[in-house]
C-alpha cells in the first residue's frame, strides 16, 4: 500500500514511486468517471505510466503560475482521456479531490473533454487529430520566434493517427525540425468500436513517423524505465520525437483490460470499487515535478522579447477615392502597416501572391510563416502563435478555409484571437470555376462562437477593418475580393466594427439595397439606374456582417417598404438571412438575391449577372416588386 | 514536324509518336489558356508525357460511352492543370479544337477546374488533395464490391502532398491494398509562390508513400520509356502504386520552364506563339487508346451486379407511440431496412455504436465500410461508391462532419447523391462538452448547393426520413439526437420532404413555437405549460429544415403575432434564420432561441436550460413578449 506516502514525488524519485503515482492516476480516473456516470476511464488507464513519468521527471511547469512563458506544454490530443489529465492536476495539487470527483458537473471546469476554462489547457481538444496540430503550432512558434526553450509534449491515441491532420502536423514538425516537440502515442490498440487500423503494429506507425522526419522510439508503455529513457532521448533529439508506446487499454483492472467493450464507459460502482481495490486503493501522492528551467536558462528567457498584450496604435494605409484597388491588395498593405508592430505574425497557405500576405512576406520575412497547402495546420499553427501571445493573421482562398472548419470550431471554444482573411470569394473570381469560389464561407464563419465577420467593398474600408481586426478577440474573418474596384470612401472615413454606411438616403426611397464587398458596387450601380427610372433607393454598405448594424437596418426598413439584399454567397447563412432575422417585426418585404445555382467559368461581370446578383437583376427586382405593390394597392 | 500525322496513335505506337502527342498536349495547353486569358499552362506542361503515355497505352476507356462500367478512371487531382485534361480530350476526339480554344468561356463545359459537367469527370477537383481521395474512394468501391477490374489513375501535384487528406487517402489505399489505384505525382518542384516543401527531393515523398503501404516507382517524368515501365509495374503491383515523376514546370518552352514566375499565368500572345513554334507547332494527332478490357474480362464484368438506378420501395421501421427511442436508433434500424436492397452501402467513421450504423454492420457486414477516424476520406469514399452507382449512407458525430466541409463543398458541385447523418448534435449530448457538440452543422449543411437537411424529433419520423433520403439527389443530411425521447407520431404518419407537422392549432393561439429534434419536445412541453397559463400556442415540427415548409410557416405567422424558433444550434444559419427569412413580409415578431454561449458539461436537461432553449425559456419568452405586447396596446 502506497496510499499514505506523504513526501512528494520528485524528479529524483525511485521508479516504484512513479508506479505508485501511475496507480493513483488510474484510480482517480476510475473514481472521477464513476462518480460522474460518464467518461473514458479505460482510455485514461492505458496512459497512466506515460503521464506519471512525464509529470514527475520531465514536464517543467510552475503549477502555481500557468502564465509563465518558460513553462512547458502538455496537450492532451486524445481529449477523451480527460480523467487522466484531471488526475494529473490533482497529483500536482492544482485541483482537489472534491473537484476531481465532481468532474463533468454543472458549472464545473472539468469538462468531458478539456477546454481552456482550465488555466493549464491552452486549446480545447476532443476532435481527434487536433491536439497534435496545436502542439506543433506552439512548438513552431517557439522555434521561429526567439528560439524559446519550452518543450511541447502531446499525448495522442493510436486511433487518431488515421486523421490526415496528424500527418499534416508531423510534416510541419519534421520540415521545421521542431526538436522541442514530443508526440507520445498511447497505442492501446482499441478504438471506440473495435481494433484500430493497425492495432499493436507499432512498426507501421514507426515507418510513417520516420518518413515524416521524426525520431521514433518504441517502448512498452507500462515500463517506466523504458518511458524514462524515451523521454530523455526526446530531449536531446535533433528532430521532433514520436514515442510509440504499446499499452493495454484499461490496464490495471483485469475485468476491463484490453476489452473492446469498455470504450467511453464509466465502471459501474461495484466494478469500480473492485478495480480501485485491485489498484491498491485511493492514494494522495503529491508530485513536485522539475519546474521550469534552471536559473541560467530562465535569465535567457527573460531577455527574450515578450509580445505586448496591448497592440500599438496603427495607422491604416489609405487610398485615393476613385482609384481601382483590390481589397486583397489593401489587406496586404494593412498587414505591412501592422507589421511595424514586431508582435504581428502572418501565415500563408502558399497563395500569398493571391491573398495579399505576400506583401508582408517581403517586408517582414522573419515573421512570415509559410504553411504550404495545408489549411488545417495553418489554423493550428496560427493558434499556436496566438497561444504564445503573438498577434496572428492567416489567409488563403475563402473556399479553402472550409478545409479547416473543424479546427476553427475547436479554436472558437475559448481559444486565443486568430485573424483570418479569405480571398477569391464568390462567383466574382471569374474563370477559375466553382471549386475556387468561396460561396459558403460567410455561413461557416458567422456560425462560429464569438466570431467577427467583415466584408469590405473598397480599399480604404478593407485596410481599416484589417487593422481593426488586429485588436479583436476570438476568430475574426475578413472577406476579400479578387478584382479591383474603385475606392468608394475618403481616406479619413471611419469603419467601426458593427457599423454600416448609408448611401443616398432620400425621403422618397422605395427600397433599401443592402450589399457588401463586390455587391455594394452592383447596388450603387443599380441605384443610379433606378434613380433615372424615377425609383429612388438608398444603399447600405453592410461591411460588418457580424456583428450586424441592426439599428441602421431597422431604420432603413421602417422607411422603405422593400429591402433587397445582394450577396456573392449562397442564400443560406449569409447576408440575406442575417438581415432578415433582424427585420421580422418591421413591416417590409426582404428580397434576397444570392447565388442559387452552380456557377461556371466566365468573366466576373458575366458570372455576377448569371448568378442573378448584378445591377441588372437588382434593378429588375426593385422595379418588379414596386410595380406589383403599386398594382396591388391600386 | 509531326503536325500532319493522320494515322491514329495506338497502344502499339512508337515512343516518338507518344512524344509527339506530349508536344501536342503542351501546345494545346498553351493555346487554350492564351485564348482564354486565364489558366495554368505551365502546370499542364510538366505532366504532358505522363498524360500521353497513359492515354496511349494504359487508360482503358471507351470515349464514346463514358457510362460503361468497365471504363478505367482518370482523375485530375491537380485540377488546375485542366488545360492538359482538355488537351487530352481533344486528342481522343471527344472535344474539338473550337471547344478547346473556347475554354473557360460563357456557358462552356471546359471550366477553370474540371467539373462533372463533363461526362468524363466523375467528381469536381480543384481543391487540392481531394482528387486523390475520390480516386481512392472509387478504387475502394471496385475492390469491395465484386472485385471490379477497372483501374483508377490519378494525377497529383507535389504541392498538394502537404495536405493531410492525401495521407488519409493513401492510408486507406494501403490498408485496403487497392492494387488498382495508381497515383501519379507530377513533382515539378514549384508551387504557386515558390518551391514546394521538398522540391525535387523525390526520396522524401518515396519514404512516405512506402510507409503508407504503397509501391513506389521513381521516374524521369519526361522520359516516356521510364513512364511506360512504371505504369506497367503499377498494373501488376500487389499494392497501390505511387509514381513519383520528376518533371520541369513549363517543360518545352524555354522562356518559362522551371520558373517560379509563371504559375497560373497564360502566356501572352507573342510568347505563346514562340512557345508553340518551339514545340513544333499545332498538330492534330488522334489517339486510339487501349479501350476497356478484353472480351473475357468484359464478360466477367457483365456478370457482376450493377446497382439499379431506381431504389426499390422500402418500408420504414415503425415504433410504438410513447415508447422512448433515440432517433439515432431509428436511423440505424432504417439503414437495416434499406439494406435489404443490395445496392445500399454504409460508411462509418469509427463511431457506429454511437450513430446507429453499427446495426447495419451487424446485418450486412459485406456492405459496411469502416473508415476509421478519417472523416475527409469517409466522405471521399462515400463519393467513390456513389460514383459507381451504390446508394451510400455515411455517418459520424455532427461536429466531426465539419472536418470534411471542403469535401462536401466539392461534392456539391454536381456530384453524386450522398446521404449523411450527424449524431450527437447540440448541447443535448450532455457531459461530453463543447468539442463533441454539433452546433454549426445545420449552417454548414444548409449552405451546400442542392442539399437537403432533415431533423426528426422522434423515431417514426427519423426512420421515414432516413428511408426517404435514400432517394434524394445531392447531399442529404439527417440530424440525429443522442438521447431517447418519446415517439410522438403514429407509425403510419407520413413525413414528406419539405413538409412540417402542426400541433395543437387553435383560433386563439398567441404564438407559434417552431422546433425540430430535441427542441420539439421542449416546445410541446412549453405549450402544455402555456395552456395552463391561458396562453394557447401552436407548435410546428420543422423536421424538414431545407427545403422548408414556407407555406405552413406563413400560415402560422399570419395567424399568431409571435413566432418563437427554438434550436439546439448556433443562432446563425440555422432554423431561426431560415424561418425569419421566409417571414419578412408577414407582420409578426420572430424570437429566436438558440445556443449563444460556450456550453459546458452537464446533464442534457440542464444543458438545454443553461443554453436558453428549454421549455422554461420558451414559456418565459412567450409570456414576456405577449405581456409586453398587451401592455403596449393598452
From TrEMBL, chains A, B:
InterPro entries: THDP-binding, Transketo_C/PFOR_II, Transketolase-like, Transketolase-like_Pyr-bd, Transketolase_BS, Transketolase_C, Transketolase_N
Co-factor(s): Mn(2+); Ca(2+); thiamine diphosphate; Mg(2+)
Highest rank taxon of the organism: Bacteria
Coiled coil regions in record: none
PROSITE patterns: TRANSKETOLASE_2 (PS00802)
Record domain Transketolase-like pyrimidine-binding: where: 325-487
Keywords per UniProt: Calcium, Magnesium, Metal-binding, Thiamine pyrophosphate, Transferase
One GO MF term attached to the UniProt entry: thiamine pyrophosphate binding
SMART domains the UniProt entry points to: Transket_pyr (SM00861)
Enzyme Commission identifier(s): 2.2.1.1
GO (cellular component) term, any one: cytoplasm
Enzyme class per UniProt: transferase
Protein family per UniProt: Belongs to the transketolase family.
Quaternary structure (record): Homodimer.
UniProt-recorded name of the protein: Transketolase
Organism: Actinospica acidithermotolerans
Lineage of producing organism: Bacteria, Bacillati, Actinomycetota, Actinomycetes, Catenulisporales
Amino acid at each position: 500500500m502506497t496510499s499514505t506516502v506523504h513526501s512528494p514525488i520528485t524528479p529524483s524519485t525511485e521508479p516504484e514511486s512513479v508506479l505508485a503515482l501511475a496507480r493513483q492516476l488510474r484510480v482517480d480516473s476510475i473514481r472521477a468517471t464513476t462518480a460522474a456516470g460518464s467518461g473514458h476511464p479505460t482510455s485514461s488507464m492505458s496512459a497512466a505510466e506515460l503521464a506519471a513519468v512525464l509529470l514527475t521527471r520531465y514536464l517543467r511547469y510552475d503549477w502555481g503560475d500557468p502564465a509563465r512563458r518558460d513553462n512547458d506544454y502538455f496537450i492532451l490530443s486524445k481529449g477523451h482521456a480527460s480523467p487522466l489529465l484531471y488526475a494529473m492536476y490533482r497529483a500536482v495539487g492544482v485541483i482537489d479531490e472534491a473537484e476531481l470527483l465532481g468532474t463533468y458537473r454543472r458549472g464545473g471546469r472539468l469538462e468531458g473533454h478539456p477546454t481552456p476554462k482550465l488555466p493549464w489547457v491552452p486549446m480545447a481538444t476532443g476532435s481527434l487529430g487536433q491536439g497534435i496540430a496545436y502542439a506543433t503550432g506552439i512548438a513552431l512558434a517557439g522555434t521561429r520566434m526567439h528560439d524559446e526553450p519550452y518543450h511541447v509534449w502531446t499525448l495522442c491515441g493510436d486511433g487518431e493517427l488515421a486523421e490526415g491532420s496528424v500527418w499534416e502536423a508531423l510534416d510541419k514538425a519534421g520540415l521545421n525540425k521542431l526538436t522541442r516537440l514530443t508526440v507520445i502515442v498511447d497505442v492501446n490498440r482499441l478504438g471506440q468500436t473495435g481494433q484500430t487500423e493497425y492495432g499493436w503494429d507499432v512498426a507501421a506507425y514507426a515507418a510513417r513517423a520516420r518518413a515524416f522526419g521524426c525520431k521514433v522510439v518504441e517502448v512498452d508503455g507500462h515500463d517506466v524505465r523504458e518511458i524514462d529513457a524515451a523521454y530523455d532521448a526526446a530531449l536531446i533529439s535533433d528532430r521532433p520525437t514520436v514515442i510509440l508506446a504499446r499499452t493495454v487499454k484499461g490496464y490495471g483492472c483485469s475485468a476491463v483490460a484490453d476489452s473492446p467493450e469498455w470504450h467511453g464507459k464509466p465502471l459501474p460502482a461495484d466494478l469500480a470499487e473492485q478495480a480501485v481495490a485491485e489498484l491498491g486503493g485511493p492514494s494522495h501522492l503529491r508530485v513536485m515535478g522539475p519546474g521550469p528551467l534552471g536559473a541560467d536558462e530562465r535569465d535567457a528567457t527573460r531577455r527574450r522579447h515578450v509580445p505586448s498584450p496591448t497592440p500599438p496604435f496603427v495607422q491604416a494605409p489609405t487610398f485615393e477615392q476613385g482609384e481601382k484597388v483590390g481589397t486583397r491588395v489593401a489587406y496586404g498593405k494593412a498587414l505591412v502597416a501592422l507589421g511595424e508592430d514586431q508582435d504581428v505574425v502572418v501565415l500563408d497557405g502558399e497563395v500569398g501572391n493571391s491573398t495579399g500576405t505576400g506583401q508582408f512576406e517581403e517586408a517582414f520575412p522573419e515573421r512570415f510563416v509559410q504553411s504550404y497547402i495545408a489549411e488545417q495546420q495553418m489554423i493550428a499553427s496560427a493558434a499556436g502563435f496566438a497561444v504564445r501571445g503573438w498577434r496572428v493573421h492567416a489567409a488563403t482562398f475563402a473556399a479553402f478555409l472550409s478545409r479547416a472548419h473543424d479546427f476553427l470550431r475547436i479554436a472558437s471554444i475559448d481559444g486565443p484571437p486568430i485573424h483570418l482573411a479569405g480571398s477569391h470569394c464568390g462567383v466574382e473570381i471569374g474563370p477559375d470555376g466553382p471549386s475556387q469560389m468561396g460561396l459558403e464561407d460567410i455561413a461557416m464563419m458567422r456560425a462560429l462562437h464569438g466570431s467577427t465577420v467583415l466584408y469590405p467593398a473598397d480599399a480604404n474600408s478593407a485596410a481599416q477593418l484589417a487593422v481593426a481586426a488586429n485588436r479583436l478577440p476570438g476568430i475574426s474573418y475578413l472577406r476579400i475580393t479578387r478584382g479591383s474596384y474603385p475606392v468608394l470612401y475618403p481616406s479619413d472615413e471611419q469603419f467601426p466594427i458593427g457599423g454600416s454606411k448609408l448611401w443616398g438616403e432620400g425621403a422618397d426611397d422605395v427600397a433599401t439595397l443592402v450589399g457588401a464587398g463586390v455587391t455594394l458596387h452592383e447596388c450603387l450601380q443599380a441605384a443610379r439606374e433606378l434613380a433615372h427610372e424615377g425609383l429612388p433607393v438608398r444603399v447600405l454598405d453592410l461591411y460588418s456582417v457580424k456583428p450586424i448594424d441592426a439599428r441602421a437596418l431597422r431604420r432603413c426598413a421602417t422607411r422603405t417598404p422593400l429591402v433587397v439584399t445582394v450577396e456573392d454567397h449562397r442564400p443560406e447563412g449569409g447576408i440575406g438571412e442575417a438581415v432578415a432575422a433582424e427585420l421580422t417585426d418591421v413591416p417590409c418585404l426582404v428580397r434576397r438575391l444570392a447565388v442559387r445555382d452552380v456557377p461556371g467559368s466566365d468573366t466576373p461581370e458575366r458570372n455576377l449577372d448569371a448568378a442573378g446578383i448584378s445591377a441588372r437583376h437588382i434593378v429588375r427586382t426593385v422595379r418588379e416588386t414596386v410595380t406589383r405593390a403599386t398594382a396591388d394597392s391600386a
